[in-house]
């Protein structure tokens, strides 16, 4: 079973979650965060603090930013067909408390207590399928009643789908001993028709090649100060690949300048699109974040293609940091973006000239992420 807590600051700009100190019947390890975040899995916007606290010596402070919802969670072993109470002392603009993988109705509750400490409390009963004290270790997804596919996380990307086709999915939770819950009710979805301008004809993640026949395209230039606060076309964008090359240093959301040619530059530039950014530094004029599936990273296919060429290793380090949250350098993105759409090469011509280094290496890498 997975406990989860998420906060979203509204009035105060931060929110604090504090679990009660350990008691005789408390099965939650490190509930008061006196051992820091040990045992907890948290997003980048969370930290253990000594003040403010409700009791004990520490608390969890979590500040959401952009796509980072400031969520912390941990896995706890429970008994089947047993009742539990989950509670926490909280303060802040918005606090969510809940659990998943209980084998029954997953509980959730939330509050908006402001500066006053308030106790959130919810009860639940675990399902009957497990026969031991082992917690959920995986989920299994079945498509169209077929053999299940094991999933270690809480999301699953189906591959090998046909265009304009309806598929049915159901999921169940299993523990390390092989005990599985009953399947959930089926959910269905239909893929887009091929060639209709949607996602039906594009793999996920996608590798795009730019074919140039002439540079006289009359595209011109747009200053960032001219970007409107709300882009009228943002919801209609299928794929936006930003030119991460032929550029001077650019300031990221961390207030630092980043230079092209290394993984940090691509992480910082992509993070701005996915988390949103103040236009020309104006906090009152913010470019809202794009969806992850709308964004791809654009970069030269070879050293001859333009300034800002990035080695295969550095490109994949950047993509891994953004899509999985691992292998990051000095710049830490505001969230993890598993739906980041892919890479764009300038250009097919230069990639061919360079022995297809870009397409061969990155296509294999992206395929390995699905």
TrEMBL record:
Keywords: Carbohydrate metabolism, Glycosidase, Hydrolase, Polysaccharide degradation, Signal. GO terms for molecular function: hydrolase activity, acting on glycosyl bonds. Residues 1-24 form the signal peptide. Residues 103-194 form the Fibronectin type-III domain. InterPro entries: CenC_carb-bd, FN3_dom, FN3_sf, Galactose-bd-like_sf, GH. It comes from the Bacteria. Pfam families: CBM_4_9. This is Fibronectin type-III domain-containing protein. It comes from Nonomuraea deserti.
